[in-house]
Write a structure and sequence with these properties.
heterodimer, A: 472 residues, alpha/beta, Rossmann fold, 6-stranded mixed beta sheet, 4-stranded parallel beta sheet, 18 helices, 36% helix, B: 465 residues, 2 domains, Trp_synth_beta/beta-like (chain B), TrpB-like_PALP_sf (chain B), lyase (chain B)
């Protein structure tokens, strides 16, 4: 499924399956949980699931060969299984004190999936508040730009998640989780944020639902994204700076988890991406799955078929999963994730987790992550602030390993070039400013795409925050 | 730029002494005028409409079309140099054609749906409604407040409805280049986006003072491929410069007006393309509560978002139309943009309307924290609505607007543009006067991301908790 390419910086995923198991390193920078002075006893809970699996033979860590052997039939895959695993990825690597909250969350999530009132309320909010459904827009000029000399070329459509309230897909998940929290009787919401977009989305829904909101943000990120910090405060949220570690997203996540451990009775933790301990990857994906569902319907309306290719940028992976999930079982639909190669894959300054990372545990889940030889997390970089997470959602790791989805990467430079069409001097082709420009740079290389309906998820905030760095 | 009188083809030159060009102002239909208005002396008697031709409130035709020369009562018209007349007529012909052209309408509808993201929701603002219930205790409920979410449109405001449609027209007219003027930058960004989409060259004129205040939007315009030219002053000066540029390049260039001012047919064109707002609102109101809105509230700079919402309901006498202008630092401070409250009638940028002018007929410099409201004039149709009493106009100060912006952010998680915040601010005064269950629709004409810097500078408390 991987395509060959001549571009020098273009690296399709090529990690062989067998190397996986030997590279299982847990980074030593696991979230450090201080023991609670008054440990809450969950006497009513019969759970004492340890974080290492393999009691149940059905859940033995299979390598991707086994999965492939079990059938490259995606409908047979458990995404996730009852332990929250996607193959060997995922899981619940958390302190005991959180296990109950996680299973409570899981139970609530499953019951709400069939709760008509909840679904109706959610649908109404998505329509009237968030502004769904987002259009599937035929990017005429962009399509023309990529047309080959013989007149052939893919038809490029953009799924306009940028038109959502707050300007990105993040709100789909935030709104649903806030509603869920209300159902659970929680009045206090916490969240982590890197670039600030998830923080803003969370602050937004908390304002909407009258919930107390606390956002953890790395002190470094707060400086770089001062405007988003202001936004969150304007919306009534409290923004707490995190100074530990490298004072960035992963540290904010750790701090948020710490807060949750302390306040789990009153507090719901709105995780921003398809990462973290089960049930989050599944939950966040399912709340974003509306993107893919709409796309299927719109594709049918527009050209009477399915997309041939789906392209999305991958930081933690939530927008990509939101688009892909609906189509995983449709094996003729190709799925492509594009990570940030920053200054280049060899520079050491990038966020290409799936391309350059190794398997380990971070923020509660087993997945690929950027770590050095000592298992220390490597600080990621990308011009797109929302893409620099050193980990990636476990489901993406799984999809990569089984070969269902392909993952490539694009450098800052390539991404910038393409936002201008070709070079800075050219007039942009669409009139849409985007942060998710990485997928487009990829398009420039994907010149072997045949005459099909390539469908690109446009995900981005209206790029307002990025206009400065782009114009430079 | 002083309001100068130019001979309109086919009509006698209006003899207006430069120093004293006040129009006949009479009490019409028994509707009293605001006390700030001066009862002014008449012009020569063979100019302007005679008393009996002044339309009454029920003369819907005037609202719906203007007359053949784009007059709304005594307002409007085509006060332009001879060189522009043929272009304007050409534009009018093309506009009348596309209005009925199935192909154009289909292309526009598709673009509005897929590119702009219409239709925009009519959102029940539960917490805002609750807020007013608590501070205005009533027996039953209090009015219900709905927001028309133009802030969700592509580029973040209602401006794109018009920019896109007019860019399509400009292409039909064979123009390769578009010029526009912008205040807050929203129209500039919308025009730049539409031009990029349609492969048109785009030049946007913007006041230097505005460029500083809305640098965000300036960067966006440049990224979208537009050339941004700085003009000393503010929007009114940028407008004048844009028009000048258009006149110099008449056959290759299309002047994309962002609002309902200017010579006929510009006000009608912009209003028509913005009227999608009101049309959707009618349909959505029907779906949501099986009726019509009771009150429509919109901010008024020159009037495009207001007319966009109001126009559909002009014929519905039971729907109240409320426009809110910018009182800036206060109506007595001299630093405001409350044209209808304080202005006099005159000609500006090609049409006759109310405008802020001094005793010498010189244009006064407007002020508002909502940069998009800083215009010393107002659309002729708006002036007409005021004069006939079809719509009511009030004002809100900078401070009230900022408070309203903060309130909506905190209560609904929506950060409105400071312009739209003026409409929201007026709810404080409006709500106590309304009956229980009254349905109020406020046009949330734009989002406030562009105003964050202003709010920060204003020393808005950076922490709430």
């Amino acid at each position: 499924m991987a395509t060959a390419s001549t571009a020098a910086t273009f690296r399709p995923s090529s990690v062989s399956a067998s190397s996986e198991l030997t590279h299982l390193r847990s980074p030593s920078k696991l979230p450090k949980f201080t023991p609670l002075p008054s440990a809450r006893s969950r006497s009513s809970s019969s759970f004492s699931v340890s974080c290492t699996i393999a009691k149940d033979p059905a859940v033995v860590m299979a390598d991707s060969e086994k999965i492939k052997a079990a059938g490259s039939d995606p409908t047979m895959w458990q995404r996730p299984d009852s332990f929250g695993r996607f193959g060997k990825f995922g899981g619940k690597y958390v302190p005991e004190t959180l296990m109950h909250a996680l299973s409570e969350l899981e139970t609530a999530f499953y019951s709400l999936a069939t709760d008509e009132d909840f679904q109706r309320e959610l649908a109404e909010i998505l329509k009237d508040y968030v502004g769904r459904e987002s259009p599937l827009y035929f990017a005429e000029r962009l399509t023309e730009h990529y047309r080959r000399e013989n007149g052939e070329g893919p038809l490029i459509y953009l799924k306009r998640e940028d038109l959502n309230h707050t300007g990105a897909h993040k709100i789909n998940n935030a709104v649903a989780q806030a509603l869920l929290a209300k159902r659970l009787g929680k009045k206090r919401i916490i969240a982590e944020t890197g670039a600030g977009q998830h923080g803003v989305a969370t602050a937004t829904v908390c304002a909407r639902f009258g919930l107390q909101c606390i956002i953890y943000m790395g002190a470094q990120d707060m400086e770089r994204q001062a405007l988003n910090v202001f936004r969150m405060r304007l919306l009534g949220a409290e923004v707490r700076g995190v100074h530990s570690g490298t004072a960035t997203l992963k540290d904010a996540t750790s701090e948020a988890i710490r807060d949750w451990v302390t306040n789990v009775e009153t507090t719901h933790y709105i995780l921003g991406s398809v990462a973290g301990p089960h049930p989050y990857p599944m939950m966040v994906r399912d709340f974003h799955a509306v993107i893919g569902k709409e796309t299927r319907k719109q594709a049918m309306e527009k050209w009477g078929g399915k997309p041939d290719v789906l392209v999305a940028c991958v930081g933690g992976g939530s927008n990509a999963m939101g688009l892909f999930h609906e189509f995983v079982d449709d094996t003729e639909v190709r799925m492509i994730g594009v990570e940030a190669a920053g200054f280049g894959l060899d520079s050491g300054k990038h966020a290409a987790t799936l391309t350059k990372g190794d398997v380990g545990v971070l923020n509660g889940a087993m997945s690929y992550l950027l770590q050095d030889d000592d298992g220390q997390i490597i600080e990621p970089h990308s011009i797109s602030a929302g893409l620099d997470y050193p980990g990636v959602g476990p489901e993406h790791s799984f999809l990569k390993d089984v070969g269902r989805a392909e993952y490539f990467s694009v450098t800052d430079e390539e991404a910038l070039e393409d936002s201008y069409g070709q070079t800075k001097e050219d007039i942009p082709y669409i009139g849409i400013i985007y942060k998710g420009i990485h997928p487009f740079a990829f398009s420039a290389k994907g010149s072997d795409l045949k005459d099909d309906n390539a469908h690109h998820d446009h995900e981005s905030y209206y790029g307002d925050r990025d206009t400065e760095s782009l114009v430079k | 730029m002083s309001s100068s009188k130019i001979q309109v083809r086919g009509q006698p030159l209006l003899r207006v002494p430069a120093r004293n060009h006040r129009m006949t102002h009479l009490v019409i239909c028994g509707v009293s005028t605001k006390r700030h208005h001066r009862e002014i002396n008449a012009l020569s008697s063979n100019s302007g409409p005679s008393l009996d031709s002044v339309p009454t409130r029920t003369d819907k035709r005037q609202f719906l079309r203007g007359d053949g020369n784009g007059k709304f009562g005594r307002f409007g018209g085509k006060f332009v140099p001879e060189t522009l007349m043929s272009r304007l007529i050409e534009l009018e012909d093309e506009f009348n054609f596309v209005r009925c052209d199935h192909e154009f309408q289909e292309e526009l509808t598709t673009a509005l749906r897929d590119y702009v993201g219409r239709e925009t929701p009519l959102y029940f603002a539960e917490r805002l409604t609750e807020h007013y219930k608590n501070i205005v205790p009533t027996i039953e409920g209090g009015p219900e407040i709905y927001l028309k979410r133009e802030d969700l449109s592509h580029c973040g405001s209602h401006k794109i409805n018009n920019a896109l449609a007019q860019a399509m027209i400009s292409r039909r007219l064979g123009c390769s280049r578009v010029v526009a003027a912008t205040g807050a930058g929203q129209h500039g960004v919308a025009t730049a986006a539409a031009c990029a989409k349609l492969s048109l060259e785009c030049t946007v004129f913007m006041g230097a003072a505005d460029i500083e205040k809305q640098s965000f939007n300036v960067l966006s315009m440049k990224l979208l491929g537009a050339q941004v030219i700085s003009v000393e002053g503010t929007f009114k000066d940028a407008s004048s410069e844009a028009i000048r540029n258009w006149v110099e390049n008449l056959y290759t260039t299309y002047y994309l007006s962002g609002t309902v001012v200017g010579p006929h047919p510009c006000p009608i064109i912009v209003r028509e393309f913005q009227s999608v707002i009101g049309k959707e609102t009618r349909r959505q109101a029907k779906q949501l509560w099986g009726g019509k809105p009771d009150v429509l509230v919109a901010c008024v700079g020159s009037g495009s978002n207001a007319l966009g919402l109001f126009h559909e309901f002009v014929g519905d006498e039971d729907v109240r139309l409320v426009g809110v202008e910018a009182a800036g630092l206060g109506l007595d401070s001299g630093k405001h943009s409350a044209t209808l409250a304080f202005g006099d009638v005159g000609v500006y940028h090609g049409s006759m309307s109310y405008l802020l002018q001094d005793d010498q007929g010189q244009i006064l410099k407007p002020h508002s924290v909502g940069v998009g409201l800083e215009y010393p004039g107002v659309g002729p149709e708006i002036s007409f609505m005021k004069e006939t009493g079809r719509a009511e106009f009030y004002t809100a100060t900078d401070e009230e607007a900022i408070q309203a912006c903060m309130r909506l952010s905190r209560l609904e998680g929506i950060i409105p543009a400071l312009e739209a915040s003026h409409a929201l601010a007026f709810l404080d005064k409006l709500v106590p006067t309304l009956r229980d269950g009254a349905k109020v629709v406020v046009n949330c004409s734009g989002r406030g991301d562009k105003d964050l810097d202003t709010l920060i500078q204003r020393g808005m408390p950076s922490s709430f908790c």
